[in-house]
Amino acid sequence: MDGRALAERVRAEVADEVAELGGASLATVLVGDDPASEIYIRHKHTAATAAGIRTDDKRLPATTTEDEVLTLVAELNADDGIDGILVQTPLPAHIDESRVMRALDPVKDVDGLHPFNAGQLLLGQPTFVGATPLGVMRMLDEYGVPVAGARAVVIGRSVIVGRPLALLLLHANATVTICHTRTVDLRAHTVEADILVAAVGRPGVVTADMVKAGAAVVDVGITRTDAGLVGDVDSAVAEVAGLVTPVPGGVGPMTIAMLLRNTVLAARYRRGRLAFPAH
Ligand SMILES: NC(=O)c1ccc[n+]([C@@H]2O[C@H](COP(=O)([O-])OP(=O)(O)OC[C@H]3O[C@@H](n4cnc5c(N)ncnc54)[C@H](OP(=O)(O)O)[C@@H]3O)[C@@H](O)[C@H]2O)c1
User: Fold this and answer.
1) Which atom of ligand 1 approaches the CA of 256 most closely?
2) I want to staple 84 with a disulfide (CB 3.0 to 4.6 A). Which of 39, 55, 110, 174 is the partner?
């Protein structure tokens, strides 16, 4: 499943929508100097600018206090010129990530990490859902992978990927199993999967013997090695699976594209083109 080509199409659609809306804007907050986070932020800004989205790149040193981050979030909430706010994670260990997410104005929370938006997804009335899970669903749709009635196994239960993706698959009527470090006999679950998603961050977590013939395999994992970026899924899986996403060039580009899509959604909500549920 070619995420790069699909992401390019989504980005072109977003650019048209931004033009039609007369603009949209995204503020990102990066605390500290984690090299991977810096790369992600750079990609997000480049893609947003190319789609006509105005960006505001807020950077704070690793020594920033939690209160200082909360003050910045309050300023961005109050700034009428900003549609979407993304606080890049992970935040430094001394900052309570969930407290920062709770401080976001839900109508600007493009990562869907405020409890209001996370709750809306749980209830089956999604508002903002994280870009990575949305990107995975869009790829499955694009490649005609049947989801209703399928057995889906998601390895990983993070709030940013595994959990929201499992809920999206459930809402699309898959029968969903979520696996994690305490799962006993991971393979017993994965071999049953028509749709297998690995969102772990450990190369080789999924090997060919763990995959059902013809399954759709989505590799969310990204690990930086001397040989470049690698996913969670062994290359030999391609010989067993019906479809597989590459790393790089799979979920990564789709995540960026869906973040832009969520920024347009924020602009629509904020301009009253769509009703944001009362909160
Ligand atoms: N492509 C993209 O755009 C994109 C976007 C976001 C993340 N990512 C990548 O996706 C990966 C996951 O990200 P994340 O933020 O979800 O990571 P995370 O918060 O570290 O979560 C990893 C999950 O994997 C589970 N896990 C770890 N080792 C396991 C094992 N041996 N067997 C089964 N489950 C195991 C953990 O279980 P426990 O809960 O039991 O600890 C946890 O739920 C990372 O490589 C990240 O870089 C990629």
Assistant:
1) 3
2) 110
